[in-house]
Amino acid sequence: MVRNEFGVLNRVTSMFRRRQFNITGLTVSETETEDLSRITVQFEGEDRAKTQLVAQLAKAYRTSSRGRSSIPRTPSRASSCSSRWQTMTQRVPRLLDAAEAFHAKTVDYTRESIVFRIAGQTHRIDNFIDLMRDFEILEVCRTGVVSLERGHGVMRRNVASV
Question: What is the mean predicted confidence (pLDDT) over 116-136?
Fold first, then answer.
């Protein structure tokens, strides 16, 4: 969690760049309070270097709290995807059946295309897109992974002191 101020995202991502980490996913959103934003960063690297970076982020300017989720597929981690597929009359039933198997929601349907929205674990969305490659993909837009604490824990700590 960081203060919702101009330049904070740049300072946080610069830490990754300076330490030569490749960011594989980045999601930024406002939280339940307009004063704070949640930054979720996916990155790869050696465990020791990751631990150092997370510790340095905790000391970073305007970082109010931080957490590390190393379990890649916990129920609290999810992403979403919207995708648009070309509709050909003879393939529409197969397209709809495949989407239904993944509980994808139809959000737009025209003569030319159909748009699905799906949310869930990253590997589930990957599998959905892979299965749907049998049809003509017009567009795919994925959000980044978001992560929430499980149980009674919350990431936001000492907000009054931010």
Answer: 88
